[in-house]
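Bumping my old thread because nobody answered last time. Still need a sequence for this structure:
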């Protein structure tokens, strides 16, 4: 017959096993492997783009930034990324052998920006490693030759450990401005989602300062060329 003490020990052992399993699931190598699995599933059209977004944002919550920066060789990469007078500097890195996603470290000085733009045929996730940024996102509702029709969705400060994501299906347009002396993000990108399009991805630059509010709460943001977008917002 099982004694009360044996029952308590059994329950404690089970609880410790579950805690150990949960801790293991939070470790960086497990998170990176899961990120790669999600990216491969997306490429095979086994999951929706918003499922990838939900998955990677969940993986980023509570991530150990010190451990991640070591895995990304952050100090060495950052030393090779001088801050530019306009826009950002970036370098692609490797986090896993044969990774399906493309990780990039972006560097920018105060007032410099990941200029406002939308995306086609790709997803990406953006995690702040150092510094602070003012981040804004819009839902992309429609296009014309002159403008994008958008609905604002996110407008807040992003600090180390904070993240957001984009896809063709959610929060497609974004704009990040560094508010600290310098700021660094780790972006993980999966492109060429639909090879039949004939291009890996496409970027549409916009002018939010000249966006016109519409009666239904949306905005009509004029398109910009890259050089003009950098001049205005970089």
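Sorry it took so long. Here it is:
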């Amino acid at each position: 017959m099982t004694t009360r003490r044996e029952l308590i020990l059994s329950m404690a052992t089970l609880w410790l096993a579950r805690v150990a399993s949960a801790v293991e699931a939070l470790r960086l190598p497990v998170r990176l492997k899961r990120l790669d699995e999600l990216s491969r599933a997306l490429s095979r059209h086994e999951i929706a783009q918003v499922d990838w977004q939900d998955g990677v944002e969940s993986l980023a919550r509570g991530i150990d930034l010190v451990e991640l920066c070591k895995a990304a060789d952050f100090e060495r990469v950052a030393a090779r990324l001088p801050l530019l007078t306009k826009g950002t500097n970036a370098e692609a890195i490797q986090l896993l052998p044969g990774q399906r996603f493309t990780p990039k470290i972006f560097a920018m000085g105060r007032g410099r920006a990941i200029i406002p733009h939308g995306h086609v045929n790709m997803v990406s996730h953006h995690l702040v490693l150092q510094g602070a940024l003012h981040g804004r996102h819009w839902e992309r509702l429609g296009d014309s030759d002159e403008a994008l029709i958008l609905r604002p969705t996110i407008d807040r400060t992003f600090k180390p450990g904070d993240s957001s994501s984009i896809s063709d299906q959610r929060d497609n347009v974004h704009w990040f401005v560094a508010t600290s002396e310098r700021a660094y993000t780790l972006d993980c990108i999966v492109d060429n989602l639909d090879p039949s399009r004939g291009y890996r991805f496409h970027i549409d630059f916009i002018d939010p300062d000249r966006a016109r509010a519409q009666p239904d709460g949306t905005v009509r943001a004029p398109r910009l060329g890259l050089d003009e977008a950098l001049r205005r917002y970089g």
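Residues 5-25 have pLDDT under 50 and may be disordered. Let me know if any region looks off to you.
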